[in-house]
Amino acid sequence: MEYWDVLQWTIAAAILRCIVVWSYRATLHPLRKFPGPVLASLTEWYGAYHAFCLRVHLTAYDNHQRYGNVVRSAPNKLIFNTAQAVTDIYHNERLIKARDYMVTSITGNYSVFTAHDKRVHSHKRKLVGKAISEKSMREFEPIMVHHVNVLMQQLEWSRQNEAFTDMTTYIKRFGFDVVSDLGFGESLNLQTDPKYRFIMWWMQIFEVRNNTALQAPTFVWTGVDIPLFFLKLFRGNKFLQMIQGLTNRRQERGIKSRDDFFAYMMDSKNPITGKDTSMKEFLEEALFFFPAGGDTISGALCALFFYLSRNPKCYRKVTEEIRTTFETEADVCSGSKLSSCKYLRACLDESLRLASPVAGTLWRELPSTDNAPFIVDGHVIPKGTLVGVNTYSIHHNPDYYPDPFTFKPERWFSDKQGDMYTAFIPFSTGSRSCAGKAMAYMEASIALSRILMKYEFESADGTKRNVGGGSGRSGERRGRREEYQIYDHFSSSHFGPNLRLRLRNM
């Protein structure tokens, strides 16, 4: 048989297979009665396409507006948009992390993010919890304050030398410096040294690949991700060399020299094999640790600066609260005074609601050994289905947040909170919620408070003011000009806001 004949038969067989599989998914599949886009019901590549375009969160929101509170987003996936679903999915100990998350692993080892075995996840979460316990946070706070002070110096340089300050540029470097110091006992010094700044965009490429693969694991199996693989390799070796340098220097100082994430990880054993933690396992954790700690703080703070610059009443109120609580910039630290700033916390929560750093869907499934009926918000879920709640979509559900696209910190003082708090999941919820939540609030609160103690700010002039917002074009997914735009690749990238800083009149 000639080559062309083989090729023709191969193509014909592939087409026939697609017809059979798609026909089954459309007419006989257990999820066929759930509403959703036709293309999503036929192929997981529907989600992969939107993930590659960095808009999975916007697509989920649009689909909920069109089809209701439960949407079939892939042949075997359902996305919910209710507070009851949050409870049924993320507070249900029968469910495990979806096994599909392992396609994001670079070493083949589990991390606290990918582990679906509950013993492994519990072990790793305890290690993270030790690194950011109340005791560890008290010890780490002076180091964090040091990085905040460096941030203040960088903002002052920008104020004096630039027409406007791009807050994403400076705050993202700050976030990565903090998480590096927390994890390795050594800062990358991204705020002052350009040597390793490439890791911020390199990790974004890495996460785009991972999020796309998570939506469609066949993205990896078919080799379609090879172009992105080469993009990962570009500078990838330098990233690994950087991690190796950090770990080598940390080992030289001695594991017990400081209570940080590295110390707890390297002093532990795998709960299943009983073996010491390997460097490959630590690398897997580091690949999650950096964006989880750096991108989340950057996203929350930049979104808040965006909304405060556009809401003068809120800006005046939070500024007055901070400046009447503390006498000087140096007085700002964790403790009862900072905790008493309730409006500050409300502003942070509203910022996290509107622009959650992790805006997508965290997937859960039943173990293969569990055959008991499974119900989510009144819907019986067929075996083998992945379920989740999309963070962006539920945070903009008017049933819980009236006027959902408006920045209203006052909503967090409402007497009718109820489901509003259940639906608020910027750090996920349940047993797999983010262990670094308290650290994130402390870091963001100290940084914002110190900045507001020293500076007044307003949006930049002209077209520079619009950076970070939507296009303003009616009908577009990103058309809301006064909405801070996030670009979902598990964590989120963002731009701006561009602000004009000026020293506060004392």
From TrEMBL:
Keywords: Heme, Iron, Membrane, Metal-binding, Monooxygenase, Oxidoreductase, Transmembrane, Transmembrane helix. PROSITE patterns: CYTOCHROME_P450. It holds the Pfam family p450. The chain crosses the membrane at residues 287-308. Its cofactor is heme. The keyword Iron applies. SUPFAM superfamilies: Cytochrome P450. GO terms for molecular function: heme binding; iron ion binding; monooxygenase activity; oxidoreductase activity, acting on paired donors, with incorporation or reduction of molecular oxygen. InterPro entries: Cyt_P450, Cyt_P450_CS, Cyt_P450_E_grp-I, Cyt_P450_sf, Cytochrome_P450_monoxygenase. Heme binds at C434. Belongs to the cytochrome P450 family. This is Cytochrome P450. The lineage of its organism: Eukaryota, Fungi, Dikarya, Ascomycota, Pezizomycotina.
